[in-house]
Amino acid sequence: MYNIMCLTAFKNFITNCLNKLFTRSINRGNAKAVAMDKNLQKYINHM
Q: What is the share, in percent, of the chain residues with pLDDT greater than 70?
């Protein structure tokens, strides 16, 4: 139970960081960074 809670908190933390990076990437118009963020997001969602 505790491990699941930790993993969920960790996932949420990473997702928040990625969302900030993702927004920044879009603002910069950096297509490569946006694609990388999307792939990371997909990977985390499958965890």
A: 74
